[in-house]
């Protein structure tokens, strides 16, 4: 199996380097990054990349300077230039200087990958001959719109299944916890389905069955015109029905029967209406802690399908794992949501500390991707140039399980300040202890989570006698 193609990304914005790294890794590439032109030239001398993605506006050597030197020393390496200043002058200068192509920031992920693939197809340097480029490029092609799911194995498996089912066109069911991204996945599936019609959505939560039936099938009266329902509006497109677990069994059975026979009779006119649209259903699955498994440990997700839908759905079920079960996707998603918030709030140069990112990866996210996105957006709105642990509005692991007052706290006569000082010290001791327990007594990691130095951590462990607590379990 050939080694992955090496791409060098050069940009002084940490967030751009982070997002591009995750995006390219999803497509099977090996990525190195540099924040300055001088550093990029040194890295190219050490190891020649197959492709360079280069920002124009950087301190020190500009992108044009690096491009000129790279073209002189490595004329066979394609270079893609990018800049936030998407003027005609830069575009013309980029192409005159010998760049393969020019990309304006903020870039579209799909367009970026397409540009990368075109650049590599026109010549990847290799000692294996001219045919090496064809064999070195990633073989499997998942539509780049699925990048938003994450680069992890579970996310990619889910993307492959969703793409296959979307293009197959038969009814399917998406399951997942609240906030897992069922609606987003349904929209992505419609986007890759190739269907010319619209995506029509119906959300069942909190709606009476009579209302849902009218929304789906339409209505009318003897004196008024017949109205189209969402089943009819989705002909040639896709109908997405979310919350089918909250829909009445009789309505689920009616929908299944109509799709199995391929038409329904309009409730007002009685006319037969053929069903030419695709159907995507979704339901909230129980958490992984309560889902049953068989003796082999296999998830019995199929058993959560309502009986009325089993014949219609068959095995066409996509389960979205909760975020806590695919933590490898969190860094990519954080970068993606930071990029979106940066554009919304005009905060182009905000980065995130390693300790803050580690805190987000370690959190269990009961609200899944929806909760993560909301937190990143809120944090970006209030943060300065860098997001640190103190900027993230999440409880320190274990802290939310503390009682309002330490068990040792006793009301005694004495100055208020002295009692508060003693109370705060007891809280600090509990937070330190539970964080150390959470990290399996990895003091370096615990200090990063709490935003204190390693030296301070050691001092506080000594001051509170926490090592003795560890010895006694």
What does this structure look like?
By secondary structure, this protein is of the alpha/beta class. The chain folds into four domains: 131 residues, Rossmann fold (3-Layer(aba) Sandwich), CATH 3.40.50.2300; 177 residues, P-loop containing nucleotide triphosphate hydrolases (Rossmann fold, 3-Layer(aba) Sandwich), CATH 3.40.50.300; 65 residues, Helicase, Ruva Protein, domain 3, CATH 1.10.8; 72 residues, Homeodomain-like (Arc Repressor Mutant, subunit A, Orthogonal Bundle). It has 19 helices and 14 strands. The chain has a five-stranded parallel sheet, with helices on both faces. A five-stranded parallel sheet has the order 7-8-11-6-12, sandwiched between helices. Strand 1, helix 1 and strand 2 form a beta-alpha-beta unit. Helix 1 crosses helix 13 and helix 7 crosses helix 8. The radius of gyration is 28 Å and the shape is flat. The protein starts with 5 loop residues before the first strand and ends with a helix. About 9% of the residues have low confidence.
Spell out the key features of this protein.
single chain, 473 residues, alpha/beta, Rossmann fold, Helicase, Ruva Protein, domain 3, 4 domains, five-stranded parallel sheet, 19 helices
Question: Could you provide a short overview of the structure?
Answer:
By secondary structure, the chain is an alpha/beta fold.
Detail the poorly predicted runs. 85-89, 123-140, 289-300, 396-404
Sheet with the most strands, sense and barrel status: 5 strands, parallel
Q: Identify the overall geometry.
A: flat
Q: CATH superfamily of the largest domain, called what? A: P-loop containing nucleotide triphosphate hydrolases
Q: How large a portion of the residues is in β-strands, by DSSP E?
A: 5-15%
User: Count of DSSP E strands?
Assistant: 14
Helicity, as a percent range: 40-55%
With helices defined by DSSP (H or I, 4 residues minimum), what is the helix count?
A: 19
Radius of gyration: 28 Å
User: What is the residue-mean pLDDT, rounded to a whole number?
Assistant: 81
Architecture (CATH level 2) name of the largest domain: 3-Layer(aba) Sandwich
For the biggest β-sheet, the strand order reads 2-1-3-4-5
């Amino acid at each position: 199996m050939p080694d992955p193609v090496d791409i060098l990304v050069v940009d002084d914005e940490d967030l751009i380097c982070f997002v591009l790294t995750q995006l390219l890794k999803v497509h099977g590439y090996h990525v190195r990054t540099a924040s300055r032109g001088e550093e990029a030239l040194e890295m190219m001398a050490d190891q020649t990349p197959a492709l360079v993605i280069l920002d124009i506006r950087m301190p020190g050597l500009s992108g044009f300077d690096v491009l000129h030197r790279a073209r002189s020393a490595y004329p066979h390496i394609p270079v893609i230039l990018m800049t936030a200043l998407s003027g005609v002058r830069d575009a013309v200068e980029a192409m005159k200087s010998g760049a393969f192509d020019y990309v304006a920031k903020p870039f579209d992920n799909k367009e970026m990958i397409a540009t990368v693939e075109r650049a590599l197809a026109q010549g990847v340097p290799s000692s294996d001959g001219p045919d090496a480029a064809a064999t070195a490029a990633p073989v499997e092609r998942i539509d780049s719109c699925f990048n938003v799911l994450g680069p992890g194995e579970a996310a990619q498996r889910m993307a492959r299944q969703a793409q296959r089912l979307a293009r197959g066109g038969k009814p399917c069911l998406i399951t997942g916890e609240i906030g897992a991204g069922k609606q987003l996945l349904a929209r992505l599936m419609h986007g890759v389905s190739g269907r010319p019609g619209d995506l029509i959505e119906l959300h069942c939560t909190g709606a009476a069955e009579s209302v849902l039936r009218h929304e789906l099938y339409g209505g009318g009266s003897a004196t008024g015109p017949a109205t189209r329902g969402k089943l009819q509006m989705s002909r040639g497109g896709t109908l997405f029905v979310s919350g089918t677990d909250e829909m009445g069994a009789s309505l689920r059975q009616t929908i299944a029967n109509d799709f199995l026979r391929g038409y329904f009779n309009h409730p007002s006119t009685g006319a037969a209406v053929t069903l030419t649209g695709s159907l995507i259903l979704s339901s909230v699955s129980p958490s992984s802690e309560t889902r049953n498994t068989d003796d082999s440990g296999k998830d019995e997700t199929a058993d959560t399908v309502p009986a009325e839908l089993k014949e219609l759905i068959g095995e066409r079920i996509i389960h979205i794992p909760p975020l806590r079960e695919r933590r490898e996707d969190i860094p990519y998603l954080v970068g993606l949501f930071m990029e979106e918030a940066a554009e919304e709030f005009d905060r182009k140069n905000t980065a995130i500390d390693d300790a803050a990112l580690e805190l987000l990866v370690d959190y269990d996210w009961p609200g899944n991707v929806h909760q993560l996105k909301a937190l990143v957006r809120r944090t970006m709105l209030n943060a300065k140039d860098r997001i640190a642990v103190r900027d993230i509005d999440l409880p320190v692991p274990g802290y939310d399980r503390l009682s309002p007052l330490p068990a040792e706290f006793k009301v005694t006569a004495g100055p208020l300040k002295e009692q508060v000082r003693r109370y705060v010290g007891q809280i600090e001791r509990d937070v330190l202890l539970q964080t150390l327990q959470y990290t399996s007594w990895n003091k370096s990691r615990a200090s990063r989570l709490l935003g204190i130095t390693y030296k301070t951590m050691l001092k506080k462990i000594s001051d509170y006698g926490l090592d003795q607590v560890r010895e006694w379990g």
